[in-house]
């Protein structure tokens, strides 16, 4: 999508406080992402790319997703989708890429980065955005909101399962990186959920197919989630031990001749629900054999006292 230099400079000055000239800025093109399946077995729908174009316009370009203000180097002033005639994706769709035009100031600090871009050293980018849906390519369910039995990267019939990213809700930034998730551009994705960072990190491990990269924030969230799971596991272990002790007690009453230790050992292969049901059943049988009653239960008097024994 061609545009005159004057028109591009006009768009750039829409983001500045003081007018810039053509000599003040370095303008370059960048491919942000596309609709091809990436290394995480996810892909953007064509509609998502068009919506992301609007969201990424005006967003800052940084290095390695660093959020420090001093690492802000460039800004997108125009974004658009572009089809490549005759090229198909692995899913059979027309290949479509989200491209952008960006600018940075020609300063001494940016001089080396401009040389690296011109020399083809800095060319891979990754984008940070929030997607509302990740649709399973096999069953059509939203993999982030509904239980889906399919695993990304696995083959079902003649199809490879992957997530189709739809309904973008926000775009954060774009960054120069060494190894992007997408082969032609690169993308780091997040999802709008209360525990999105933890869920996202766990999903990465579930669909692990090589190296993955997680942020410091994701790492901390994952640590907290692991600590919670460990605590729940300890509570579950204590509950199982309590149920097993109860079963052992009831077994002595119901089956005094049976090797109780061997019987209890069989509970190890049972689920907690099965152990709970066995305990309930054995408690009923034990109570039927030795009814529980209070040692101080009331006994009805058989003799009626009416003071006649003391009549004169």
Determine Rg (CA atoms, Å): 34 Å
Strand portion, in percent? 25-35%
Largest sheet: 8 strands, mixed
Q: Give me the count of strands.
A: 10
Distance between the termini: 128 Å
> What is the structural class?
alpha/beta
- How many distinct folded domains? 2
Mean pLDDT figure: 80
- N to C succession of SSEs: HEEHEEEHEEEEEHHHH
State the helix count: 7
Q: Which bin fits the share of residues in helices?
A: 25-40%
Which regions contain 5 or more consecutive residues with pLDDT less than 50? 185-196, 292-303, 305-312
The dominant shape is elongated
Description:
This protein has helices spanning 5-12, 46-56, 108-118, 196-206, 216-254, 260-265, 272-289, and strands at residues 25-34, 42-44, 60-63, 74-88, 94-105, 125-136, 155-156, 159-160, 163-176, 187-191. It is α/β, with parallel strands linked by helices and 312 residues long. The chain folds into 2 domains: 5-214, no CATH class; 230-288. The radius of gyration is 34 Å and the shape is elongated.
Task: Give the tags.
312 residues; alpha/beta; 7 helices; single chain; eight-stranded mixed β-sheet
């Amino acid at each position: 999508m061609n545009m005159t230099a004057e028109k591009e400079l006009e768009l750039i000055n829409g983001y500045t406080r003081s007018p810039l000239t053509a000599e003040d800025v370095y303008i370059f093109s960048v491919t942000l992402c596309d609709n091809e399946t990436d290394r995480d077995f996810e892909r953007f729908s064509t509609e998502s790319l068009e919506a992301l174009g609007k969201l990424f316009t005006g967003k800052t370009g940084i290095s390695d997703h660093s959020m420090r203000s001093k690492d802000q180097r460039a800004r997108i002033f125009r974004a658009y989708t572009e089809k490549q005639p005759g090229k198909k994706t692995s899913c059979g769709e027309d290949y479509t890429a989200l491209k952008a035009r960006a600018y940075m100031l020609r300063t001494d600090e940016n001089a080396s980065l401009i040389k690296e871009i011109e020399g083809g050293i800095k060319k891979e980018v990754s984008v940070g955005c929030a997607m509302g849906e990740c649709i399973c390519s096999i069953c059509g369910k939203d993999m982030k909101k509904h239980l889906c039995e399919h695993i990304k990267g696995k083959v079902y019939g003649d199809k490879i399962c992957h997530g189709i990213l739809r309904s973008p809700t926000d775009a954060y930034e774009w960054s120069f990186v060494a190894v992007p998730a997408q082969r032609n551009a690169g993308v780091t994705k997040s999802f709008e959920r209360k525990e999105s960072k933890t869920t996202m990190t766990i999903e990465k491990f579930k669909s692990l197919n090589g190296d993955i990269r997680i942020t410091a924030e994701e790492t901390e969230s994952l640590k907290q989630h692991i600590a919670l799971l460990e605590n729940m596991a300890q509570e579950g272990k204590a509950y199982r031990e309590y149920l097993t002790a109860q079963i052992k007690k009831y077994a002595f009453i119901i089956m005094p001749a049976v090797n109780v230790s061997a019987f209890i050992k069989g509970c190890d292969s049972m689920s907690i629900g099965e152990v709970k049901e066995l305990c309930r059943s054995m408690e009923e049988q034990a109570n039927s054999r030795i009814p529980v009653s209070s040692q101080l239960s009331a006994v009805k008097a058989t003799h009626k006292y009416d003071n006649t024994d003391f009549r004169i």
